[in-house]
Design brief:
Elements lengths: L6 E6 L1 H6 E11 L3 H8 L9 E5 L2 E5 L20 E4 L2 H12 L3 E11 L2 E11 L2 H28 L1
Antiparallel strand pairs: 1-6, 2-5, 2-7, 3-4, 4-5, 6-7
């Protein structure tokens, strides 16, 4: 059987881009059990409550919900367990400095398979205030209306 190629997205955290301002993103591998991988291959995961933290020079992902594998039995995994992230030492140091500086947190943006290996896109993010969220929505709506007006104007000229 040939190896998987390309990228297959399993789950995205759409709420994260609304709740946080993303400063920088990192790609990290995940330490998973067999039934977790099988459950992810079925396309089942939820990143909405997830976060990452650095402890003892290692990175961990917590509160990400990967449901139990449907054909699993006593070897099934716990749905919301803490999972270790695979990052280079320099990346872990950079992340820990960013978080310890204050105001920043580590948020998972998407979970995907890259060439058959489970990866997670991790963001160093700063929480948005309520008025920032409203302003972002207003800007998005304004650009959408401007594009719509341009399309209508171009259509009339034809």
């Amino acid at each position: 059987m040939p190896r998987e190629r390309g990228e297959k997205v399993v789950a995205t955290n759409r709420r994260a881009r609304h709740e946080y301002t993303v400063e920088k993103t990192y790609e990290a591998g995940l330490v998973l059990t067999g039934t977790e991988v099988k459950s992810l291959r079925q396309g089942r995961a939820n990143l909405s409550d997830g976060y990452a933290y650095i402890q003892g020079g290692e990175a961990f992902l917590d509160a990400v919900h990967i449901p139990e594998y449907s054909q699993g039995h006593w070897t099934n995994h716990a749905a919301k367990r803490t999972r270790k992230l695979l990052l280079h030492k320099e990346e872990i140091v950079k992340l820990s400095h960013a978080v310890s500086a204050g105001g920043y947190t580590l948020v998972p943006l998407r979970l995907y398979f890259s060439d058959g290996r489970a990866k997670i896109e991790l963001a160093v993010a700063k929480g948005k205030r309520e008025y920032d969220k409203r302003q972002t929505l207003r800007e998005r709506q304004d650009t959408r209306e401007a594009e719509r007006a341009m399309r209508l104007r171009n259509r009339v000229g034809e």
